[in-house]
């Protein structure tokens, strides 16, 4: 399962938004990945996500694979919307 988002947070995905996303994904058993351009990051690793240096206006894809992928994706979508990080494309 995957969803695409356009980043609207003024500073892109810096430390605080990355921490929110990683904290949201970590409790789930499914694997979660953030893809930006030609690179991918483990959504459960703060250093991996921050190393992507995703700017405002960027389009990213979040994918989840596993037994609780639907719940994981619902949580990630909730974080994007409730925290003003971006909107689903």
UniProtKB/TrEMBL annotation:
Top-level division of the source organism's lineage: Bacteria
Keyword vocabulary terms for this entry: Cytoplasm, Phosphotransferase system
Predominant location: cytoplasm
PROSITE patterns per record: PTS_HPR_DOM
Key word NADP present: no
Annotated HPr domain residues: 1-88
Cellular compartments annotated: Cytoplasm
Gene3D superfamilies in alphabetical order: HPr-like (3.30.1340.10)
The UniProt record lists the keyword Metal-binding: no
Protein name: HPr family phosphocarrier protein
Upper lineage: Bacteria, Bacillati, Bacillota, Bacilli, Bacillales
